[in-house]
Amino acid sequence: MSFANKFARALAPMAIIAAPTAVLAAPSDELAKVEAHLTTVSSMTANFVQTDGRGRSLRGTLQLKRPGRIRFEYGGGANMLLVADGSSLHFIDYDVGQKSRFDVHKTPLGLLLAAKPNVERIAKIVPDKDPRVVVVRARDPARSHYGSLYLAFIHSNSAPGGLQLYGWTAVDPQNKKTRVSLTNVRYNVGVPESAFRFAEPKKRRR
């Protein structure tokens, strides 16, 4: 499996409900709010529901701690895990006994997990019919072969930076999309360091 395909599968828990549309020039005030949100959020927990292109759904939990740490844990019998430990992003498939490792700062996740996210360098606002919604496309021009992330926020005065994170869309280089919505999002809560550790997969005997 190619790097791009592995990474797209690893980012499966990151999506929004609406499909992205054409990118327009980003209003500076909206991007400033996105950057304020990311900078203000030091930790986060949430539940997610993932739906793939065939309509199959999985549920799971998310834990995030900036900089550089995130964990997507699947329920419903899906025996895989996605964990960033501060420097490396690990995608573990326990069923096949394999682990893939990437530099987290060289992936689209780098924007979410950076100590000082540079939103203006790699992000643009995407138009949405609902004025309450802010959609941002994150794509590093130097690493476009990794695909794109579309982050969705809803305006909320009570949320960090005035924005409530709703979810993501992961789009791979073949334009395949995986959608997930987030619920029960909690910001700046206690997340233990043990959340970013994992058991090594056992190689399957042939």
Give the uncertain stretches in residue-range form.
1-8, 12-26
How would you sum up the global shape? Answer: globular
The CATH topology, please? outer membrane lipoprotein receptor (LolB), chain A
State the CATH class: Mainly Beta
Portion of residues in helices? 10-25%
User: The biggest beta sheet, please?
Assistant: 11 strands, antiparallel
Number of helices: 4
Walkthrough of the structure:
This protein is mostly beta strands and 206 residues long. The chain contains 4 helices and 11 strands; from the N terminus they run ααββββββααβββββ. It has one domain: outer membrane lipoprotein receptor (LolB), chain A (Clam). Strand 10 and strand 11 form a beta hairpin. The protein starts with a helix and ends in a 19-residue tail after the last strand. The N terminus is likely disordered.
Secondary structure layout:
Blueprint: H1 3-10, H2 28-40, E1 43-51, E2 57-65, E3 69-74, E4 80-85, E5 88-93, E6 98-103, H3 110-113, H4 119-122, E7 123-126, E8 133-138, E9 148-155, E10 163-171, E11 177-187
Antiparallel strand pairs: 1-2, 1-11, 2-3, 3-4, 4-5, 5-6, 7-8, 8-9, 9-10, 10-11
Task: Give the gist of this structure.
With 206 residues, the chain is mainly β. 14% of the residues lie in helices and 39% in strands.
List keywords for this structure.
4 helices; eleven-stranded antiparallel sheet; mainly beta; 206 residues; globular
